[in-house]
Amino acid sequence: xxxxxxxxxxxxxxxxxxxxxxxxxxxxxxxxxxxxxxxxxxxxxxxxxxxxxxxxxxxxxxxxxxxxxxxxxxxxxxxxxxxxxxxxxxxxxxxxxxxxxxxxxxxxxxxxxxxxxxxxxxxxxxxx
Length: 128
Fold this sequence. Notes:
Layout: H1 4-19, H2 23-28, H3 37-45, H4 49-55, H5 59-73, H6 81-104, H7 118-127
Helix pairs in contact: 3-4, 3-5
């Protein structure tokens, strides 16, 4: 049963995730193949499916893979090593392919912004 405390904690988690910044993007200004995944899943959870696909078109795979992983950890289902390995490789290839296509199409979600990176900011501050 959902209590006020549970709802309050879930709200805090959603608020924290909504301001989360990818460490690679924050430090170097270079997005990773997962950039947009958190925003996509949060959008899907709140029913904004068009936004979810905008942020990361592979978001349904994250939901499915995460669900299977949780069920496997809980012992509800068993996943053979060969199936798990093949799935991981499929996800890696799909993520990299999607990342490249998003860059080629000029998606602002994965746009590089080196000048805004923490490393560049620290370097500029040390030079001046």
